[in-house]
Amino acid sequence: MSVKNFKFVSPGVFINEIDNSFIPKSAEAIGPVVVGRASRGLAMQPVKVQSYSDFVNMFGDTVPGASGGDVYRDGNLISPMYGTFAAKAFLNANVAPLTYIRLLGQQDTNQDGTTAAQAGWKTTNTANPTASSNGGAYGLWVFPSASGANLGTGSLGAIWYLSGAASIQLSGTLYGGANTGTPNGRGLGADGLTTVMQTGSIVAMPDGNGLFTVVIAGTNTEKVTFGLDDTSDNWIGKKFNTNPQLTAQSGRFYPTSSFKDYWLGETFAQTLQDNSLTTGNNLRAVLLAIQNTAAAGPSQMLGQPSREGRTGWFIGQDLGTYSSYVPFNQQKLFRLVGRGHGEWLSKNIKVSIENINASTTTTTDYGTFSVVLRMLRDTDSNVVVMERFDNLNLDPTSPNYIARKLGDKYTKWDETARTLKTYGEYDNQSKFVYVVVDSDVDAGATDPTLIPFGYFAPPRFKTVTDLWGNGLQGDTAGGSFITGGVYIPGGGGAKAQGAAWLSGSIALGLGAGSPMSGTIQFPAPRLRLSASDGGLSDPTRAYFGFQSTRTATSTRSDPGMGAYGRLLYANFGGGGGDGGATGVDDYSTVFSLDNIASSSANAYFYQSGSRAAGTSISARPTFTYTTLLNAGYDKFTTPIFGAFDGFDITVPDPVYNKGMTGSPTNLNNSIFYTWKRAIDTIADPEVLNMNLLTAPGLTLPSLTTHMINVCEERADAMAVIDLPDVYVPRAEAYYPTKPQRLQATPTQAVSSLRDRIIDSSYGATFYPWVQTRDENSGRMLWIPPSVAMMGVLASSEKRTAVWFAPAGFNRGGLSEGAAGIPVTGVTQRLTSKERDLLYDADINPIASFPSTGIVVFGQKTLQQRHSALDRINVRRLVIYLKKRISVLATKVLFEQNVQATWNRFKGLIEPLLSNVKTQFGITDYKLILDESTTTPDLIDQNILYAKIMIKPARAIEYIAIDFVITSTGASFDD
Fold this sequence. Notes:
Elements: E1 32-36, E2 47-49, H1 52-59, H2 71-74, H3 82-91, E3 98-102, E4 136-143, E5 150-162, E6 167-171, E7 173-174, E8 200-205, E9 212-217, E10 222-226, H4 236-239, E11 262-267, H5 269-274, E12 284-290, E13 314-316, E14 332-338, H6 343-348, E15 349-357, E16 368-375, E17 385-392, H7 402-406, E18 410-414, E19 419-423, E20 433-437, H8 439-442, E21 452-456, E22 460-461, E23 482-483, E24 485-487, E25 517-521, E26 527-528, E27 544-546, E28 584-585, E29 590-592, E30 596-600, E31 603-606, H9 625-630, E32 636-639, H10 670-680, E33 692-694, H11 701-714, E34 718-721, H12 746-756, E35 763-767, E36 770-773, E37 780-783, H13 785-799, H14 808-811, E38 823-826, H15 832-840, E39 844-849, E40 853-856, H16 872-889, H17 899-918, E41 922-928, H18 936-940, E42 947-952
Parallel strand pairs: 1-3, 1-33, 5-25, 8-24, 27-32, 33-34, 34-35, 35-39
Antiparallel strand pairs: 2-3, 4-5, 4-12, 5-11, 6-9, 7-8, 8-12, 9-10, 12-23, 13-14, 13-21, 14-20, 15-16, 15-32, 16-17, 18-19, 21-29, 22-28, 26-27, 30-31, 36-37, 36-38, 39-40, 41-42
Helix pairs in contact: 3-13, 10-11, 12-15, 16-17
């Protein structure tokens, strides 16, 4: 501090304290980018995590595959997710952060329209729904006890998805008597009952045990008897195949004996239970195809890239007279949209609005509320909070404005610029969602007293009414997703058999002149009806709206809730208050606290239409909406719906290499496009800092070469790639024995790599695959060598520095824990000649020695020309120096180009170089910055030009020792 800074007025001693003991902030550690699948987390965007615990919180734990279970309901965990193991291997060293890019299925906006080019999936032969064999989706509707021709209301209990030439039919006792007619010439089945093809069905009754029977005829015909009570061993969900992957071409991923022509998809046990349709011998059932057009139906999900889940629009309270109240006319306020989680969000998260308060001050009319993201399967008596945001409001000028507190930014891929672009005003504070505020609310043009009071529920297929037998009657304007007809035997014969598309109704007949009536209804999420449901000791703890428990008195959640939020079909638009589509109700209901009524002081319940009838709390004389809030009933819950992962669920690994056959491009292959887009996301070095790039398990040559090219163009990172067919995991193809999975021998791997003519020090590869043990499940699995190398590179850096060779027994001993995860074996034990062959071709061997274990036995890059940069340690040294020096150099950017600035520049750089020399990274260096480098001509061009010459320290890879045998009388001093 200069003496001039003291203020001297009167005589005295003046003291100032100067603290020069601050520890300067060290440079941010730089880590790798890993591209791969994960069980959850933000997708198709780089996400940095600092530790493995952070990774698990965001993306979930390692996935070893072979999990089985209900694949359609619970998700595809059949194939290993190698990226999760690579993340664990690196982060266990705790040396630097890691950036993960989770994959979800994508497609190019200009894709060529072929099946391979499109994301998603579909069952086969859906183009002709009237054919006798057409694949598709088939729903089982269950009716209550029928009396004569009146079936009543049928609820959807389950959906089967058929593949190829398979057909499905109900078999059993026919409602209406014995067969006296032939339905449209179809004839009788082998069991003496009506053969019912996909275009229609029979109305069947259960057997004496309350069970139904379905016959699925195809490659392997199945006749299955089942029940509808999900607490029973005969429950439909336990009787049928639930793995879509078994419908793949026979022998492609599983033995031929495992092939299935179908899988059981959604089951709606809760809906059936609510309507008393799970047990009894008086039930009736009908099986019908669900499809509106060849391109619209639950079995048609092809052409749909990943899509985010969302809530319906939250709406405000009614501020008008109760007699004119119309729920769907209430002001829309905001909605929440997923930030990139795909289907995981709608299957695991629900949203509650709570602590709703009207304004209590004279300074503002805006009320406040909280947004709480909860686990889908928690209960109101045991709330599990994922995130919460309190004291929010709808005032755009307030610091507590909901968009400001949650964030409204979202990313979108720009196909032209090949980069992610961010839109919105406020940074995201939620890990799961961003907020979309209605434009009128955001402009401050709505009534400030409005607060969230309800929501639009998820969409569903339209209810089909007026089922009667004298023609195709009903609401034809809205269309229908019910396909085909229903045959009832008797004097009336067949009714509407072969009808291609039914617009709002199905023709039924029961004997001559006896028309049948009834209604076909699709399920909707349940609503809490009473504040006392679930046995709450304090009814004000009840969240009205969406209810996830099994029954009114239950504290157990419904395991099938995820089915209610499913995306209806590919490219479905609207839903939840966004606008309708043909054959679809834009919302299954509109919930509002305005419809909460009470019969006594503590008996509060939801009654649809009660406000319009003048019987709800807010509609009573002298009462307002604040009366309900003041009583403590200030919260409600809504589901998230409409998400999609964009993957083909009929294959074990939806981004598998053998799904990119021929000459894949962005335009003709969705898997190729998905991988390439993820890699291109980090192509710009100014978007993300990294020093390594890997995509474990990706072996397609064109894509792994692209990874190297991206790193070389960035010039600040190195790609660790895997070679094709070194080991073919089960998710790629079915082979009965392990030797058949070893498709590429060392000789073949060398030949294949040489044919690619890669000459770059920015890439490296290793051979063969190694075995690890998943520490959570104990399962043994084979993993690509790039996974183990992430751990080796991290542990080597932690023990020494990036410029030490990540190989050998000191730093490359996989059996000794260098990989960060257990390594217990190799797919192939290499001989000395095979190691020589691989290393000569720049493939680094992973050797297994009987006495010393498994070790990385090479550290070459893929540079063919011999130089210091043909070794990994030198390439990583240079990357390290370039990154550090470029950061330091920015400190003199825009300073005067004079000697003093040059000296300052040298003062910043030389300590770094000296430190690296001290730590054996370089043996010598020279920094030149004077008039010989920065000439007057360069000064005139605003350029400072310096030269840095280094001598990198080389690793010992060969040790030569002469043993000289001498005679007894020889002297060692000579």
